[in-house]
Protein 1
Amino acid sequence: MKLNLIPVATAALFSGSAVFAGGYVAPIVAPAVLPVEVIEPLTWQGGYAGVTLGYAFSGDDEVGIGQGNERTYTTPNELELSGANYGLRLGYRWQRAGGSRDWVFGGELGYEGGDISDDFTTDGYSAENEVNSVLALRLKAGPLNNVKNTWFYGILGIGRIDYDYTVYGTEGVAGAVDINEGQTSTGYIVGLGVERKFNTNWSLSGEWEYHNYGKDHLEDVNGKSTEATPDWHTIKIGLNYQF
């Protein structure tokens, strides 16, 4: 019986040695899978409101004095409208896919005031034009960039201005004149702009515009006349909030 125990003990010894020789085997743990955050592109469709701050420059209104519809005398100077202006705007935009880019278009109602004006005194005459306000309806359209956070657009609009126009003098070669009128005129607006969105609601814009309000014939009580031709360029920045 003792001899039979030897093979069993030998087998147990070798079996234990094999287990200890391999050491501790760590369990395999699968790596954690983190959720992927999907960032939705910014949308431009919807209503918005904003404020603007700008500067008008390079107006060109050559002042002439005539009798009735005849302009017989032109002064050696002109009214070059310029000055700071501020405004409020309210609009709505639509966004549509088109080719490789999305397109945005919409309408905007704006009101602007400030100090767009000019005056001069020469050859016995003084003249002044002061723009009190601008009410405008603008259409804007253009493409977005690839990541849809920047909009490039053209501007086409119609504007109505309220302004005060004065031409006065008693010693010039065209005779005495005393024109002092408040006037309203309708004209056109063209321009270019770019707008950048910071987040879903807030964006910043920069725009160039040209305003032209045609020609208004003005007369005093004695029939002395002039033609007001208000126009100007303007550069402005704006801050918008999309609802």
Note: The chain has one domain: 46-242.
Protein 2
Amino acid sequence: MRMMLPFFLAMALVACGKSEHTATGPAFGSTETVDSLVANSERLKDLRQQCATDRARLGDELCNRVAEATNRRFLGDGKVPYNPPKEAPKF
């Protein structure tokens, strides 16, 4: 029984480890952060197109980061307060 204990411990550690996802390779931008995508509009555009056509291959995690970066580029970071004009518009 003592000889099998290390084997079972190793199997438990392997089973509990983080599973590999198909889109974790560097070709799929596993290191892409939301901030890096906001800064690189061409890369963001390419990934948006790839997520639209083949989300299963890229993975939900990357496509969610792409969506968040798209929102930040469109809406801003939310730190700029709304400043209404001092005079009402005249129609």
Note: Helices lie at 5-16, 34-39, 41-58, 60-75.
Protein 3
Amino acid sequence: MSELISGYAVLFNNITTIGGAFREKISPGAFDKSLREYPDVLALLNHNYDRLLGRVSSGTLDLRSDRIGLWFGLHPDETTPDGLTAIGNVRRQDIKGCSFSFTTTRETWEEGDDSQLPLRTVEEAIIWEVTLTALPAYPETSAVLARSNTAVVSSAIDTSRRRAEAAMRLRGIR
């Protein structure tokens, strides 16, 4: 039985500040077209392409878009140093969040004012990779470790979903 790291790499309608320059949120379904047309998304450690943990085409990464966000299930290779690093860091919750790399294909902007930065809403984008990271731009993302069997995977998905929903409620997002 292999280890499974799962969680939400993206939470829809969750606003974060990017580099102190603007606010950003991802619309529900923003990656649906991309997942159909460019399905071979990678899973990395800290956005580093030299630290590949999995990919959709090899069956080691599963991505699903739902009403909450982009859920992932990752089976890192336990025979590699990076796989063991990912498993250990997520197990200890030193890494408990995610980030992602994308190219925006459709977006809207709302001007900011003296009290708020401009808001970019990503309506459609091509997703290239999801990454495990200790410092995610969207802090409410999640990564948890579970043994890979149906009951535990279902429990891990439920835990990630509950965390995401609680974070969204705290921000007033329904």
Note: Residues 79 and 139 are 30 Å apart (CA to CA).
Protein 4
Amino acid sequence: MMNAKLSAITGSVLLLSAPLQGFSATTHPDSCINRDWKKEIPLPVHPNREMVDLYHKTWEIAAGRVRKGPEGLPASPYMDENCYEDQIWIWDTCFMVLFAKYAPRSFPGVESLDNLYKPVHEKAVTPLKVHLVDNPPLFAWVEKEYFDFTGDKNRLDDLLNKKQYLQKHFNWFAQAKSGERFACSPQNIHLNSIGDDGFTWTGGASGMDNTPRGRDAGGYRNVLWVDAISQQALSARCIADMEQALGNADEAKKWSIEYEALKNKINHLYWDKKEGFYYDVTISDKQPCRVKTIASYWPLLAQVASREQAQSMVRHLMNPEEFGGSYPTPSLARSDKDYHHQTGDYWRGGIWLPTTYMTIKAIEKYGYHEEADAIAEKVISQQLAAYRNIEPHTIWECYSPSGNAPSTEHGRRVRPEFCGWSALGPISLFIENVLGFKEVSAARKEVRWRLKKNKGRHGIKNLRFGGIATDIVFDGKGTVSVRSNASYSLIINDSNYSVKKGDTEIQL
């Protein structure tokens, strides 16, 4: 391995002096990426050349995961998570939508969801099995994120008014019973609805395979899982917002009532006043099961927490003895007796980009942007250092909570080329938190930028949302140069500027 100068950036170690070593993503024989995809992706402008290089290399790996599906698949091409050849995952696919939205003509994120909707809710016979139908119910959240970014009301109308996939999934999840069979899946479901109080779940079904949750209550079946009910609340809130966007006021009101009921239930049952933390609770006596995991940040993404509750959750998040430090957002708190310091042992401390992304977006809902940005930069720095130091030079399924290396699963190194959801770091978090483009809304024709004047020249080119294509670059001194094919509002650090078609210069 070549020598390189070490440089500390926000607490993590980066190798900066030499260019990134070359990487050629493994091209699957069924790969069918649009050959012009590089013309579609946004082009970041940032003084850290290696982060920019990692951004592009991550897209290259993701391009290798755009697959031509077997004959009879509802959506082909589709995004493959790079795990099993004959199965697809709900929550992997949902999280891939959140970076694929930046280049939707080449990276079929939402289209891939049809490979899940149709076999689950239309009983369509398809050639790929759905691994764990009771995976986290994230469809409504990612569909809303996609709609906000693209403004695609036709898809929204099809989802909500015609096929009603999102409502069907919410209602099924709310009434699920353990042991139920789906023809499209090789497994019985593990999720079990316990009246109005919540759900029992398992490690695999929840996505947190070997998590020690439920440990002190006698196992998974004896606790109500805080993430399951919070994801239902998030779904209800997002469905309400999308119904409102379609002008369906009565439906929006109905889903808002559903959301408020779930919000009240979560705060009544799952909030532990003693520790100021959301926990799973025992079924028998509704007492906190104090195994502290990253899943407890789903209530914040669903915006069920008060300002005071969110403040307490952020204190735990930033505490280096729990979820903070140089390698933030481990899946299990460092203070837990089952925390695995060296590698994280998958969900016993491993750092996962999907839950990291969720947590960052959750605390942003409450205005904790500095904390969110610092976490994002540390996690991307870790991914970059692991890319540089570890062979093969790639993006990993999850990472160690104590060093610049991948995590392990059953003692083996986790999966490489995982773009897949791990692309959320070098792509989405880089755009949204390092560059600072917090919100991009085609529906509102608006870009919200948290510009950091001390970062030097930075910005983004070829950003496409809806029918708008724009370049936005800060010169590092006091001028923002904008080029656009249409007008929109650019909000820079809470100041609103009107962008016209053509070139616009903004003096800060």
Note: Residues 436-508 form a domain with the Maltose phosphorylase, domain 3 fold (CATH 2.60.420.10).
